[in-house]
Amino acid sequence: MTDRLFLDDAYQRDGLGTVTAHTPEGGIVVDKSLFYATSGGQPGDNGFIAWADARLEIATAVKLDAWQIALIPAEPQPLPPVGAVVEQHLDWDRRYRHMRVHTALHLLSVVLPLPVTGGSIGTEKGRLDFDMAEPPEDKTELEEMLNALVALNLPVTETWISDAELRANPGLVKTMSVQPPMGEGQVRLVRIGEGDAQVDLQPCGGTHVARTGEIGKLRIGKIEKKGRQNRRVYLHLDS
What we know:
239 residues
């Protein structure tokens, strides 16, 4: 099983890992991954790894299964040998923008408390698809509500519950199309706010900022109709 360093500390930019295997496609399996692996609408991280006198650019990271992560080189080059210890270095600016957008989308699901049918995260914007027959009446009001939550600078924390506890509390799951990963015996919950000021709690395996104030000002973009009961809402970082 690959140890997911990005879950231990989303702000860690550099770290070590040992190569445990190569995939037939040229991926590098590591025992510890600083690189987030593509899932849940969030792209995999990029950056580079280094070992001995060599350096290799990493385009992304992917899950091989529920347990292992492979780093994908940007170009075909000699790979670090199995057993090599590699230094992992993130493209931090890109990762941090993903963290801001991902956390902002959690807030979007707060001000639009409807079932989520899909989503995507980028460096400048993200979007959620909602089971929503009619578009919001007042986009400006939604934007103001979002930025008010950002301004509260609420803490973003995590807790873990068992698979059985999640099955007993299905209301925690907001997404209709993607179910939270289960099978390891526990599921990670991301909480925004605390105590009486808690505004959100939902299963999520992505990376997030530590406080909502880090997100910065938000702007709601296009709201598109994507089917009879589906609306796509775009959310932009203003800086």
